[in-house]
Amino acid sequence: MGFRFHKSIRILPGLRLNLSKTGVSASIGRPGATVNVSERGVRGTVGVPGSGMSYSEDIVTRPKRKRRAEPERVGWLGGLVRALTRR
User: Fold this and answer.
1) How far apart are the C-alpha atoms of 52 and 34, rounded to whole Å?
2) Which residues contact 53 (CB under 8 A, 6 or more apart)?
3) End-to-end CA distance of the chain
4) Helix (H, G, I), strand (E, B) or coil at 76
5) Residues contacting 57, CB < 8 A, separation 6+
6) Sign of the C-alpha dihedral, residues 8, 9, 15, 18?
7) What is the rounded distance in angstroms from the CA atom of residue 80 to the CA atom of residue 42?
8) Tens-digit pLDDT profile for the chain (87 aa)?
9) What ranges do the domains of the chain cover?
10) Phi and psi for 13 in degrees, rounded to 5?
């Protein structure tokens, strides 16, 4: 399980600045309908306030950058199993 961080700051009514471990975004709207603008693109969300139910969809997305292949990460148990099953 990884460490997570999120903080939302109200700038004006209907405008929030969102801070997280991975970046910054801005949300515009009110409970029930919000548009979020971030480095990843623009995302719209509609929902029923207080119910926990919502629908979210990317409106505009930025193309993903190609990354170099990274070695597969495994936890300590996965590493132990691999070490024991190596031939």
Assistant:
1) 14
2) 47
3) 30
4) helix
5) 43, 44, 45
6) negative
7) 42
8) 578 888 999 999 999 999 998 899 999 998 899 999 998 889 999 999 889 899 999 998 777 777 776 666 667 677 777 777 776
9) 1-62
10) -60, 125
**Number of alpha carbons in the 13 Å side-chain half-sphere of residue 72:** 5
Tokens of 66: 């190609």
Q: How far apart are CA 51 and CA 31, in angstroms?
A: 11
**Which residue, 11, 32, 33, is CA-closest to 24?**
11
pTM above 0.85, yes or no: no
In this structure, what token pair is assigned to residue 80?
Answer: 């132990």
